[in-house]
């Protein structure tokens, strides 16, 4: 099923095949204790996480910089298809309540998890409202950051 068609003018995409089973990638994304161990590229860390894994549920994280500054982010889960797709947005809070995104621009993340041999075809899409938000997210290091976080997810789940 195609949930979303990428718009190259507005969206950023990270797509890779990783040597971790799809169910482990899903667990890493949906278990707060695991997500806190890989979600933020080092030397940053994720120090809090709350996930209510249902449409309208909470997807909240708090990141900490190496200098100790904390950056909370609150979002809303839009889609949670067990083992295959997670969609959340910073444009809405729990219960689909509209909110102003803390990072300066709202975006929606689509995480697709598909079996590929013994591994997983992993696709992360960041959907933006306009080209300037896409550019800001890209300049913040979307590809490097989300890529490094994925590497950390793979390392963690291979060790577990």
What does the model show?
- The protein has 160 residues and is of the alpha+beta class.
- It has a single domain (11-159), classed as START domain (Alpha-D-Glucose-1,6-Bisphosphate, Chain A, domain 4, 2-Layer Sandwich).
- Helix content is 27%, strand content 38%.
- The protein contains four helices and ten strands; from the N terminus they run βααβββββββββαα.
- The chain has helices spanning 22-30, 32-38, 131-139, 142-159, and strands at residues 11-18, 45-51, 59-64, 70-73, 76-81, 85-89, 92-93, 97-98, 107-116, 119-128.
- It has a five-stranded antiparallel β-sheet with strand order 1-10-9-6-5. Strands 2-3-4 form a three-stranded antiparallel β-sheet.
- A hairpin with a 2-residue loop joins strand 9 (107-116) and strand 10 (119-128).
- The longest helix is centred in the last third of the chain and has 18 residues, at 142-159.
Looking at CATH, which topology would you report?
Alpha-D-Glucose-1,6-Bisphosphate, Chain A, domain 4
Order of helices and strands: EHHEEEEEEEEEHH
Number of domains: 1
Supply the number of helical segments.
4
State Rg. Answer: 15 Å
Helix/strand/pairing category: alpha+beta
CATH superfamily placement: START domain
Number of strands: 10
CATH structural class: Alpha Beta
Judging from the principal axes of the Cα atoms, what is the shape?
A: globular
Mean pLDDT: 94
């Amino acid at each position: 099923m195609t949930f979303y068609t990428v718009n190259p003018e507005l969206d950023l995409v990270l797509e890779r095949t990783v040597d971790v089973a799809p169910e482990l990638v899903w667990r890493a994304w949906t278990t707060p204790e695991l997500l806190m161990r890989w979600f933020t590229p080092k030397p940053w860390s994720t120090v809090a996480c709350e996930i209510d894994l249902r449409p309208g549920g909470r997807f909240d994280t708090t990141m900490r910089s190496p200098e100790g500054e904390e950056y909370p982010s609150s979002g809303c889960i839009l889609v949670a298809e067990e083992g295959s797709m997670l969609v959340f947005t910073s444009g809405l809070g729990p219960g689909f309540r509209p909110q102003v995104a803390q990072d300066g621009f709202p975006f929606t993340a689509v995480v697709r998890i598909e079996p590929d041999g013994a591994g997983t075809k992993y696709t992360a899409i960041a959907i933006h409202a306009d080209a300037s938000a896409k550019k800001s997210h890209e300049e913040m290091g979307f590809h490097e950051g989300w890529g490094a976080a994925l590497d950390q997810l793979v390392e963690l789940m291979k060790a577990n």
